[in-house]
Amino acid sequence: MLTVNDDEFWEGVSPVEFGELPALQDAVTVVGYPIGGDTISVTSGVVSRIEILSYVHGSTELLGLQIDAAINSGNSGGPAFNDKGNCVGIAFQSLKHEDAENIGYVIPTPVIQHFIQDYEKNEAYTGFPILGIEWQKMENPDLRKAMGMKPEQKGVRIRRVDPTAPESGVLKSSDIVLSFDGVDIANDGTVPFRHGERIGFSYLVSQKYAGDSSAIKVLRNSEILNFNIKLTSHRRLIPAHNKGRPPSYYIIAGFVFTTVSVPYLRSEYGKDYEYEAPVKLLDKLLHSMLQSPDEQLVVVSQVLVSDINIGYEDIVNTQVLALNGKPVKNLRRLAEMVENCDDEFLKFDLEYEQIVVLRTKTAKAATPDILATHCIPSAMSVDLKA
Question: Where are the alpha helices (DSSP H) in the chain?
């Protein structure tokens, strides 16, 4: 949320008014400064699709508008107006593909208003809640019959439940979710939306706020069960953002340990990190769930040159599994275990069955000189010192 310190700024300024969610083929005009430029640019088109979209920057899925007006770098954050001059959304991404032309995406007013109301309600952005499950379509008739569903029953099958989500206490794998807040879910995971349209049922969840409760009806072993679930925002093993904080790190004997996040992967492997990063890390990015609220994915980021770590130079971005036989849950825990270690050796168990063994006293004694050689002011980030 942005403002200015001088109230005179607002004199003579007319605020933009939000309009309703447009219909298909409604005209839209996008205003902004694509590819830089000193004067404003206006492009026009129509709404070509309304559906649940993957928000690239937020790593989440929310309601979005697809339009055929040109959206380029520099348009992001600019308003999209309807033919009445009301703002119906904010341009934020486009599809760049050799087989696609003029496919741009707009954040619609319901999502914008949810953000504003969330901020007003909580004096902070708490995010969009999610249902902490992964689900499977139930369109196959044999699958429905095997799961004990009657012909008139429709819903989706739960594949996995997030262990750290509140719903893990009541929902189970292979439950069939029949309805959410009284709205029946179809076998393809959609629910009614406006006149004759359908949309993914996650839309209903995204209309809620963190801390709200929702009624869920499920089918389990041919028995219908009703639960009341408190919704929370989603947390990932590999987070999408660092929330403005500098990255955490810990250094011992030239080994740089850090946590994996999407910004970290992007800095290491570029914008195509989804293709360039190691398969093991990508698998965890896409499929792994937190097993505890404080779990982090800790890796050896790099090995700084020193005599003490000869032979380990090629270890890069490899996950740390354990230290001296004790599991490494997060970076803070790793730092504490190393700092308090009285054993003769530090034995790190890494992914791919690799091990790193260092003599404890020698490693701790060598660290200050290695830091000085590489002009690094501290062996650990500020957040780990706290």
Answer: 109-122, 141-146, 202-206, 262-269, 273-276, 279-287, 331-339, 360-373, 382-385
